[in-house]
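INTERNAL AUDIT FORM
Audit reference: QA-55
Scope: verify that the stored structure record matches its stored sequence.
Auditor: D.O.
Record contents follow.
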Amino acid sequence: MVEPALIERVRRKFQRLQSVLDERGRRHWAACEALELGHGGIRAVAQATGLGERTIQRGCEEMRGEEASDPSPAGRIRRSGGGRHAVTAQDPKLLEALEALVEPSARGDPMSPLRWTCKSTRKLAEALARQGHGVSHSKVAQLLKQLDYRLQGTRKCLEGNSHPDRDAQFRYINRCVRVFQRAGQPVISVDAKKKELVGPFANRGREYRPKGQPEPVRTHDFADKALGKVCPYGIYDLTDNRGWVSVGVDHDTAQFAVASIRRWWARMGHQCYPHAQSLLITADGGGSNASRNRLWKVELQKLADELGLAIYVRHFPPGTSKWNKIEHRMFCHITENWRGRPLINHEVIVNLIANTTTTKGLEIRAELDEAGYPTGISVSDDEFRAVNLVPARFHGMDWNYLIKPRSDHRKSATY
């Protein structure tokens, strides 16, 4: 029997050496110590180092040269051929079958059973098992990573066919904006925000509340017949970094859009630009302020006559509404300000909009517009010909035009 003091000495030696030894080095060192100790040496070294007796026995056999006929190749710790074979080596067609399931339209059968289902690792493993490829869902995840697949969401980047003059229109709008700003004339960006349900409905986002006391809201988003919806229409002053929002309770029509501009001028615009002679409006190409909307132009003519201002309009090309300044300078901050809060009534909506500010100094005023704006109003050819419209040289028939006030229709307005 080996003495305990000798076992303790072996233990201390092993603690000093184990960090610099690889698997084979530890095995050979332990075997040398066991051979030196003689009878009972393997058990004593195993007790001192924690290595298995079979491992030390194998090291002794290697040290005695009993396996010299099958040496391990240079650079290897274990002999070749040891360990479990890779699942792809046992099943060479596994990767091909997996890719066919993940990307059926590109690499596999377009009639794949998983083409129209959620391709989770468990469902992929089940589908592979039905094809005779036994593999676990965790191994499927490893193989997908090996094939350079990652969990990804969708990306908004497809805008359809862009107009050939898209970039030229952007440059034209920018030049017009700079000209108006240098001349001290008002420049506004207009658009309608999406309609919102009024009432105790869920609103995206979260806000701080006492623990375990979330704001109770309705389970289903069916519009309240009494409260209905609201349609916020915004006007953003590009120069002054201030905005106006008319919170309409009826339809989003051209009449409502121009009425919102009229309210902005009466409440804010006239005070900022008391000597204005013209107004530049940048707008999307669709909706209530669409470039081909006859009623929009007829209502702008009425506004030009009332204010005595020459109204220049510049529309963004189709599919480029996200470049409209009001979207990322005003509307996004309104959405952030009311995140996680149910819009329970009109007063709450108006106050949330009016209290939206940014570190860049954005100020917004809001007002409820309870007037009715019926849909389906048609404009006759005679009415449209009465509009004092001057098309620009560049896309003047659709995107860029001027509406001059008619002197015989001009009205004096007091603000």
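Auditor finding: record pair retrieved intact. The longest helix spans residues 254-272.
Action required: none
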